[in-house]
Amino acid sequence: MKAKERTLQREIAVGLDRRLRTTRILLRGRMVAWAAQLEWWDPEEGRWVWVARYDTKGGRPHRDRNRIAPHEEVSLPEDPGRALNWAEKDLLDHMEGYIEGYRAAKAQGKEAWS
Length: 114
Fold this sequence. Notes:
six-stranded antiparallel sheet, 2 helices, globular
């Protein structure tokens, strides 16, 4: 019998127009994949857009910045729990810079990614 994966999601409001969303995928109680994503309410589009995220999609932890840089190599702790904590802290500590970078790239007409 194949072990079942369990997905845990969390959303934290960090202001009226920004939030942090995290996903943990567990297998037999051990984290096997994760993502942390900073989202901003874009008043021009009238919807939440992701601005920056860290995840393990593709096998290695990396950072994506919407409209700016996909799949940036970053040095993160090997332990998945510590890596996720580090990613959450970075997104919160540099939130304004990530949002301003997104807004500037959007103003320059750079395409968004889903």
